[in-house]
């Protein structure tokens, strides 16, 4: 079950990285960036393209190698802080777009699944 979760993350991050790399203006506007300068486009490509491809790689590696514990720790290491920052930022900057809320909802699901899978792995040890 952990491998399926890790593959879902790998695919989600690979697709998101591709989408953000191929259509940076469209995706950046969807999440609230009004306009990107040349430096902004470069930074957007690095973070929303490159780093997310890196995440996809790590999730896929953890799934393929059977290193599910690492994959779940990695998942919690990125999702818990993201979710905490998301909650604070949504409350602070309300109202926010539907895209922001949908992304947050997906992060809640992925965090909850990672916690459940982590607890299941610990129970098996």
From TrEMBL:
It comes from the Bacteria. Keywords: Membrane, Transmembrane, Transmembrane helix. The chain crosses the membrane at residues 6-24, 45-64, 70-88, 100-119. This is DUF4345 domain-containing protein. It comes from Dokdonella immobilis.
